[in-house]
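ok so I'm stuck.
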Amino acid sequence: MSRTDKQKSDGLTLVEAINEALAQEMERDERVVCLGEDVGLNGGVFRVTEGLQKKFGPDRVIDTPLAESGIMGTAIGLAINGMRPVPEIQFEGFLGPAHDQLVNHAARFRTRTRGAINVPLTVRVPWGGGIHAPELHSDSPEAIYTHLPGMKVVVPSTPTDAKGLLLAAIRDPDPVIFFEPKRVYRSYREQVPEGDYTIEIGKAKVVQEGTDITVITWGANVFQCLEALDNLPDDISVELIDLRTINPLDRDAIVQSVSKTGRCVIVQEAPKTAGMASEIATQIMEYCFLHLKCPVQRVCGFDTMMPYYKLELEYLPDAKRIAEAIEQTMAY
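replied:
not stuck anymore, here's the structure
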């Protein structure tokens, strides 16, 4: 699919970058198929798969019944038998019915068969809040799936990263959950390479280098962190890390940065208790303890259900809360 004049001049949104990655990989590898509710004729609820069924046909872009367990079970069967399925779950809150298939089959099959059979499966899932959606449409369940040995978890933040990471995920021999931050689906454009490229799964990105404090985040929160950094005093030098991959976690990047700065703030959308921020803080304690100048701080969602849209932005970490945490950490 060729780019429009606007895409050539202004760059791609996250949605457009993912669409391009899918189209290019389906063109390159006939084993790649997309399946899910409304992914074909309607192009998905967010139009991420728009135009793919017209180009590749209904046998490769498959509209399924409204049954997440069936979508996932079918995709696992396809993967075991040599295909490269990319199922879409419409919203992260709908992963529940597919959880059994992911936990007891997709994540375990390589171990169960002593490496004889793998499951090259990429589960695309719109992720996170900030779009004023109803209940079950705005959660951040990455920690749940990171807890599963055998399951890789990717959360891109930019169009360039989304395309490169999705191509890497589809080609990966193991199952990957690809969480797409829907809050920035269309809010940001950048120039994305048109050709074939991949970004290694498990490698974080240093968005901004600094010497005084490390801020670690992923997904849409990268942009709230950048806004917070713009509002800090000029004499605070912040190193901002976008993890990009939650599992495997780039411990080396975290340890290297925190050992240098001695201070750390971790930002996540999910509730505070037992989230990824807790795991990262623990690893910092284990590997950077003698370098720390103060306790690690977490800026998170609250330990409650994501509220309805009137209070949604009060729940999500914003630039003000992040900046305050950075300044408090610096003043410790």
